[in-house]
Amino acid sequence: MKKKLHLIVLVFLCAFNSLFAQLNGTYTINPSGSGTKNFTTFKAAAKMLKDSGVNGAVVFSIANGIYNERVSIDTIKGTSKTNTVTFESASGDSSKVILDYGAGATADLYTLRLNGCSYINFNKITVQKSGGTNNYGIEVTGSAHHNKVSNCIVKAAKTASLCYVIYSATGIDSVNTFYNNYILNGYYKIYWDGGKKSEKKNEFIHNILDSSTYYGV
What we know:
Elements: H1 2-19, E1 23-29, E2 38-39, H2 42-52, E3 54-62, E4 65-68, E5 71-73, E6 85-89, E7 97-101, E8 110-115, E9 120-123, E10 126-129, E11 135-141, E12 148-150, E13 153-156, E14 163-168, E15 177-179, E16 182-184, E17 188-192, E18 203-205, E19 208-210
Parallel strand pairs: 1-2, 1-3, 3-6, 4-7, 5-8, 6-9, 7-10, 8-11, 9-12, 10-13, 11-14, 12-15, 13-16, 14-17, 15-18, 16-19
């Protein structure tokens, strides 16, 4: 009886470890894909990262298409300067992978939120908030740090004073980089509360700011 109980416990532990094994290597995000290394949505990939963590560099290669969802990337165990997590277009064309959230409720402000995460990269995709009078394309919050958005198209609506393309107002968000992006629309292109003394080294480099209603930065 004792041996049988030990065997059951061992099988359970193996199944648990397999379910929540740390991520490492290349994965895909493809609604038509299959297999253990494919996720059909950004949200599914983000949940697995949060639940499992990483023990090496991780790349999500994203199939062309429109992904109608809002995504929060929260704190991920194991990320570091070498153990980065990258979301990037498989085709290399930022206009072909579109992360879009159109709902306009007050509680649904963002399309992409970097929430306390670190060493997360977004490369060559479009992030847009296409609906609602109050909205953010990308929100950075919760002391997020060492994240990078590069070669992306980032868009928001421009119909009201609470439309921000890139927004950071709460938490001490430091060492985040926005490089070579096309930043479109919005009442404000970039709203970043830099008044917090311990917040530092956030960089905006070689971005194009187009068609704001009021402020660029």
